[in-house]
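Tokens for chain A. Residues wanted.
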């Protein structure tokens, strides 16, 4: 049953977003750090990658669900997204047609949209990869999309294995993309800073030749039967 048949619009314009202050604070951390402290959850499948490893993005999610090969709903999302938003598209991982190219990316950039994440194909990749506008996608295809199948904008979505609500925090970098639930962002940022401080100290110690192996290693090896009691590495 479609949203239209139930009297509900398939385009939701009113969502609650993670605050700009929290977006700015979270953007300082790697996606990997955020994913670790979030319980190693919320990451999109590794097939979703930036077109250039220098690309980074952070912002509240505008979710889009489309049928494979059709980008009509993405155009609707581009029209209603606010500056700073990240458009996140459930394209079902389909690579038979590109859902976006240089024209739509230029429209998004000029509109102030922070970036686009698509579990699907894009095209004009040479031009997009040379630019500074963040595009994350599952693959490439020169074939263009149709614009004839209804989709849904700003409903809960599953994108490349990650559950996303509209307004959740999206952070992407060279490693991929992680999503943090909007109401949990402040806590995750605090944990991320503690983890970053600990990792920075650990790396500094390794570079000095101090404690080259992690302190927990032998205990865990014994716990899982790889070392017997009293045995050491």
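Reply:
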């Amino acid at each position: 049953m479609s949203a239209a048949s139930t009297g509900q619009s398939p385009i939701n314009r009113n969502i609650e977003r993670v605050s700009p202050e929290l977006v700015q604070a979270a953007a300082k951390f790697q996606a990997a750090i955020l994913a670790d402290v979030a319980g190693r959850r919320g990451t999109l499948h590794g097939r979703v990658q930036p077109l250039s490893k220098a690309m980074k993005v952070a912002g509240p999610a505008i979710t889009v669900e489309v049928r494979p090969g059709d980008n009509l709903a993405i155009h609707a999302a581009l029209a209603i997204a606010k500056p700073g938003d990240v458009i996140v598209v459930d394209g079902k991982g389909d690579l038979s047609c590109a859902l976006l190219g240089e024209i739509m990316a230029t429209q998004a950039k000029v509109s102030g949209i922070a970036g686009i994440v698509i579990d699907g194909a894009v095209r004009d990749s040479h031009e997009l990869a040379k630019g500074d506008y963040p595009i994350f996608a599952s693959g490439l295809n020169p074939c263009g999309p149709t614009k004839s199948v209804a989709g849904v904008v700003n409903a809960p979505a599953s994108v490349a294995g990650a559950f996303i609500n509209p307004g959740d925090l999206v952070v992407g970098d060279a490693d991929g993309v992680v999503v943090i639930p909007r109401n949990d962002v402040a806590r995750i940022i605090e944990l991320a800073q503690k983890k970053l401080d600990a990792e920075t100290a650990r790396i500094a110690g390794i570079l000095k030749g101090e404690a080259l192996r992690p302190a927990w290693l032998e205990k865990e090896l014994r716990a899982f039967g790889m070392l017997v009691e009293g045995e050491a590495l």
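The mean pLDDT is 95. The chain has one domain: 4-181.
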